[in-house]
């Protein structure tokens, strides 16, 4: 039994070390084409507190209107323009479509 545990112990340590490297990483999401239609999935994505870069990767067709971005004020009903609320670290923590 000590032979088996001496073989598996280094393997377990290696797996633990590699999995620890990805502790803060987020899994890449498949980009959503078009505008937001699945609000449940969108809300779940926003709950992960994405950065603006992560938002653009996940929803490339949705205009993210961050503070300082100039935009027109026409009313859109198709969830194509998102005005985020940002935390102190610059992550999206909420917002609304307009």
UniProtKB/TrEMBL annotation:
Domain of life: Bacteria
The keyword Signal belongs to this UniProt entry's keyword annotation: yes
Keywords: Signal
Span of the signal peptide: 1-23
Protein's name according to its UniProt entry: SnoaL-like protein
Lineage: Bacteria, Pseudomonadati, Pseudomonadota, Gammaproteobacteria, Lysobacterales
